[in-house]
Amino acid sequence: MNVTSADGTSIFFEQRGDGPPVILVGGAFNDRTTTVGLAEVLAGDFTTIVYDRRGRGDSGDSAEYAVEREIEDIAALIAQAGGTASVFGHSSGAILALEAAAAGLPIERVVAYEPPYSTDEHQRADVVADVRARLAAGDRDGAVATFLKVAGTPEEMIEGMKQAPVWGWFTALAHTLPYDLTICGPEARPRTENLARIKVPTLVIGGGASDEALQSGARAAAAAVPGARHETLDGQDHGVLQFPETLKPLLTDFLKEASARPRMQ
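The structure assignment produced for this chain is given below.
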C-alpha cells in the first residue's frame, strides 16, 4: 500500500495485526523488511506499520533531502492509521522518531532504541560531506566503509563484511546514508532544544551488550526528554531487530498504556 507525503512522494507501507497503531522506523541500511520481524511479534496486540523510508525499497524520493520531509512521511502514515499512532525507532530511525515527536506530530508514545548520539565521552566525527563526495564519485563501497568506521565498526570487521553477501545490501542502500547522517546532525550531538519539546511518554532503550558509546547515547537521549524512561535490555546489542522477541515485553507493556485509538482504515 502507499500513502502520499506532503511533497508528493509516494511512501510504501505494510500493516499487520489489529489494535492501536504502531509505526516502526528503521535506521541506516534498513528498509521495511528489517522491521517485519518486530511487526509480526507485536501484531497480536497492535496494528503494526512498516514502511520503506524515502529513497528505499518501493518508496519514492525527492531531489532535495531534508529531515522535515521524513517527518512529513511519518505524518502521512499517522493520518492513514486514523490520526494518531505510537512510534518505535531503531538507531538513526530512533532519532527520526524523536524528532517527529518534537515537531508535534499526533504521536501517542515514542520508543527509541539506541539513538546513536555522541556525548562528551564518546565523540564522533562528522563525515556527511565525505560520504556525499564518495557517492558523487560513484564510490559506494567507500561511502559504506566511511559510514561504518564512524559508527565504530573495526576495520577488520569491515574487511570481512566486504566478502559477505551483506555488503551488497549495504552498497545498494549507500545513497541513503547522507539521510541518516543528516538526521543524526553535526557530529551526532543531541539536539537538546528539540528533545526538550517532546511532551509524550518516551521510552529509550539501550542494549546491555552494546558498546559504551551506544549506551551513552541512549542515556543522553533519555536525560534530554522530559520525563523519559530509560531501560537496558540485557544481552542485546545494536542488532536487536534480529531478535525481536526480546523487545516484546518492554514494548508491549509501554505501548499498551496508550489510549485505545480508532482502527486502521
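Interim note for the steering committee: The radius of gyration is 17 Å. The chain has a mean pLDDT of 95.
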